[in-house]
Every structure is written in C-alpha cells, then in structure tokens.
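Reader question, answered in our methods column.
A reader sent in the components of a multi-part assembly and asked whether the whole thing could be modeled at once rather than chain by chain. We filled in our standard form and ran it. Here is what they sent:
COMPLEX SIZE: four components
ENTRIES:
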Amino acid sequence: MNEQTLEPLRKQLAAFAAARDWDQFHSPKNLSMALIAEAAELVEHFQWRTEQQSAELDTRTLDAVALELADIFIYLIRISDKLGVNLMDAAARKISINESRYPADKVRGDARRASEYDQE
Amino acid sequence: MNEQTLEPLRKQLAAFAAARDWDQFHSPKNLSMALIAEAAELVEHFQWRTEQQSAELDTRTLDAVALELADIFIYLIRISDKLGVNLMDAAARKISINESRYPADKVRGDARRASEYDQE
Amino acid sequence: MNEQTLEPLRKQLAAFAAARDWDQFHSPKNLSMALIAEAAELVEHFQWRTEQQSAELDTRTLDAVALELADIFIYLIRISDKLGVNLMDAAARKISINESRYPADKVRGDARRASEYDQE
Amino acid sequence: MNEQTLEPLRKQLAAFAAARDWDQFHSPKNLSMALIAEAAELVEHFQWRTEQQSAELDTRTLDAVALELADIFIYLIRISDKLGVNLMDAAARKISINESRYPADKVRGDARRASEYDQE
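And here is the structure of the entire assembly that came back:
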C-alpha cells in the first residue's frame, strides 16, 4: 500500500484552513470534538432505523450519509496532519495488532470485545 | 486525486471481517456505533488536556492516539464499503460544498458554525 | 415536580471536585468531552448486540451499564452546575417544547426526526 | 437522598412515549444512540470555544445549551427506565466507587485518568 496516498487530500485541507486563518482553532483537542460531532450526525441517521433498514437506505438518505462520512474523513485527516500522524501507516500497524488480537479461528462468529475474551 | 486510493485497505478490511464471519455484525447501524466509540477514545485523551497540551503530546501518548485514529479510519472505511460509498469521491464533493459555504474572505479568522452565519 | 430535587447530588459532586482541586479542569468544554466519552462507553455495550439483546442484559452486564449511566448522570449534573443551569427546570421546558413539536396524533408510530417532518 | 426523586419525570416520559407508540423504537440500543447524538450537540457548542469562553456563554447560547442538557437528561432517564435501573441509586454507588478510586490526598490537582494512575 502506498503510504503517501492521502497526501493530496491532506495538503488540500491544510490550504483550506490556512486560507481562512482557521489553524488557530484547529488544536487536536478541538478537532477531536469536531470529529465526534460529525460521527454523531452519522449515528443520528441510524438511531431509529433497524440494522436491516440501515443497510437499505433510500437515495436521498444515502447521499446525506455519504457527506457525513466525508466530514468524519476530513476531520480525521486534519487532526492526523496536526499531530504529524501518517494515517495509512497507523492503519497498517493497527490491522497487524488486530490480527494477533483476534485470531480468525478463535473469534469466528463472535463479536465480543477483546477485553471480554481476556477475562476468560 | 486518484479515487481508487483506499481500495487496497477496503479489500484488506473486508477480508479480515469475512475470515472471522463478522459481516453478520457489520450493519451500517452497528458500525456507526463502533466508529463513535473509537472517536470517544480519541476525545478521552484530550479531555483534561489544554488545547496547547493536546498539540504537544509525549511519545507514548502520541503513539496511543495514532492507534485511536487508525481505529476510526478502519471503521470509516468499513462502513463506507458496506454502504457502497466511495470515500475519496465523497470527500471531494464535501470540500467543494465547504468552499461555497465558507468563502475565505467572509469567514477569515471566524470559526462560528455555518448555521450561525445563516442566521445573520 | 420539585425543582430542588437534584440539589443534594449537585452539592456532593461539587464537594468531591473541590476536595481534589479539580475545578481547574472542570470547564464546561472539558466536561462536555468527559460526558460524551462516558456516553460512548454506554454505546460500546450495545454496538454488537441486537436491539432485543440490548433489552435482555445478563446481570453482570446490566450492572456495568448502570455504572455507565451513573457516569453520564454525574457529568451532566456537574456541567449543569458549572453553567448555572437547573436541570429539572430545563427538562420541564424541553418536554413542553416536545409536546408542541410532536403532537401525539400526528407522529404516532413514526420516529422520524422533527426536521424530517418539517420538510414535508 | 430520596431515591424516588426522578420518579415523576420517569413517569411523564414513559407516558409521552406511550401516547406516540414510540416504545417500539425505544430499545436500550437505540436510546444509547439518541443519547450520544444529544451529547454531541452539546459538544458542538464548545468545539471552537476556548475553555474560558465555554464558561462565559451569552444568554442565547446558554439557553440553547440548557436545552441540550435537558435532551441528554431525558434520554438518560428513558434508557434507565427501559433497563430497570434506578439512576439515583446508581449515582450513589458510583460516587462511592470514585471516592475509593481517587483518594483526595493522592490525586489533588491531578486529572489524569484512573487507568494512568493504575499503571504506576
């Protein structure tokens, strides 16, 4: 996987903030708040829908949901940039941790949290 | 920007879930909950830190924060996949909307929410 | 309803923070972060459970969930105190707004958000 | 402290839902999502404000924030009701746990998370 893959997007968002003099507001603390607020707008779309309905959205809702996903992505790239974290690297590292933590033959069909396995 | 850029990661995560028979748990509704839970773990790192402290993390905390960012990214890619949303496309579309909504010369140095601008 | 009803709890939590010199950390901003982090711990208990399973928790899980609810309640009282908001008054006011906004004969059996009704 | 103190509010909210035939939507899972979405609306008010600004809200913002706090409170009472949890009891129990976990003379002026203390 090319680790430079989000670089154009990172630069575009940095320029967007710079042009508006918004770096003064973009502390990691504040960006984490903005990110979770966007995540909640995603949750809101699903809170009164069943699991099945959440997988069968009408076009208008799906379009709105796609833009919420974009908002989360934008803040995620922005906070990573501010902290100097390479998101593609971090994801690769986390996937590798998850592979050790949840061996396929141990957890198949079981979605409990790792902490719950560990209690056994 | 190459819109296929997240494709290897999307495939890797789909295979990870398939190998564990976890698709049955991965409704968009459930994934939105998992995503916001990870976003909250990010917030937790910053809740008692000042804005300035949030930008000056020690190595150990920064490492933990990077893995929280990875968790959010992983669920973001996973839910986008389940909904058939191309995250790079959606981000490009949202940035374009933001450029119209927040003209640089109107909002410079002012971070109020768009809804508040609209009330003026 | 007696509006002074949360007063003993408010005082107890204020004394708890004062004894630890924690008021310096308890800005409304920080407390809102702590509150949402606790709300996410609640969500985590339900993210891989079906709706029905969420209503039929085993004793150990129910006990853990009760303590998460307590954490949310504690931060809710604490932030209300810091802002000088009377939570019982605010709830009474919000219920009255909801009664106008969602007339029973209009919304029966329909859980869409008010904003969605308003678009009709 | 009178543990029956939230009983009138609990009953009022149960009647509100029953009159609208909304119990079918009010699984603990769904209510946890609604609760965190309201918590995020609170966070949104503070995300671009400094800690100090968050403590000095203008009247109009404070009024809006009070209603967000009410929304969180309403869902908190509602989910507790659905799970058969007495919120006042749970809070008393949690405060007692916190008193053991954070002895005043050990943690004075230090807001690190308990997990960080435990690592020492």
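What stands out: The CA atoms of residues 10 and 81 of chain D lie 7 Å apart. The interface with chain A takes residues 25, 30, 33-34, 36-37, 39-41, 43-44, 46-48 of chain D (CB under 8 Å).
Send us your own complexes using the same form.
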